């Protein structure tokens, strides 16, 4: 999996890294036990601060996506670890909160429930049918949907 960042993007670099790694998991490019580049190596390869990479990795660890061990680096977390159940529950709650926040913003921009549900169904279908998920974790049509609200 190739990881890149766009320093001109308004999205923070750590979030770009986080989303790309999650997209790699969704696409099956990363499997449980796969090693990720070390913090230092990835920071050097991308020309960014190592604290930026460390922040992305810490977020991924806290969400249960990766395991970090001093001296052995970061690896994709196994799916069958019992402690992941609590992390999974927390992450599911966080995502539900995000969906609620997005729905509120959608409505505030004048969108209807039917339009919102159609957009959600379209984007979720693309992900679950294994259509292209770009490196940022976004689907190509998301930009068009966002532009339609402005």
Automatic annotation (TrEMBL):
Q: Name one GO molecular function term.
A: DNA-binding transcription factor activity
In terms of CDD domains, this protein maps to: WHTH_GntR (cd07377)
SMART domains named among the record's database cross-references? HTH_GNTR (SM00345)
Which ranges are annotated Basic and acidic residues under compositional bias? 132-142
What are the record keywords, sorted?
DNA-binding, Transcription, Transcription regulation
Q: Species name for this entry? A: Bifidobacterium dentium (strain ATCC 27534 / DSM 20436 / JCM 1195 / Bd1)
Name listed for the protein in its UniProt record: Transcriptional regulator, GntR family
Query: Which segments constitute the HTH gntR-type domain?
Result: 11-79
Q: Which InterPro entries match?
A: Tscrpt_reg_HTH_GntR, WH-like_DNA-bd_sf, WH_DNA-bd_sf
- Top-rank lineage group of the source organism: Bacteria
Ranges for region Disordered: 129-150
């Amino acid at each position: 999996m190739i990881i890149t960042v766009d320093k001109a993007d308004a999205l923070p670099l750590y979030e770009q890294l986080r989303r790309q790694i999650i997209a790699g998991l969704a696409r099956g490019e990363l499997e449980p036990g796969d090693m990720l580049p070390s913090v230092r190596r990835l920071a050097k390869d991308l020309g960014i601060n190592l604290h930026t990479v460390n922040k992305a990795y810490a977020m991924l660890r806290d969400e249960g996506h990766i395991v970090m061990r001093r001296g052995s680096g970061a690896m994709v977390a196994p799916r069958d670890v019992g402690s992941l159940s609590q992390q999974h529950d927390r992450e599911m709650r966080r995502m539900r909160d995000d969906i609620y926040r997005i729905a509120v913003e959608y409505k505030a921009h004048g969108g209807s429930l039917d339009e919102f549900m159609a957009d959600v169904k379209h984007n979720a279908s693309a992900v679950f049918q294994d259509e292209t998920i770009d490196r940022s974790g976004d689907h190509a049509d998301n930009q068009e949907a966002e532009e339609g609200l402005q």
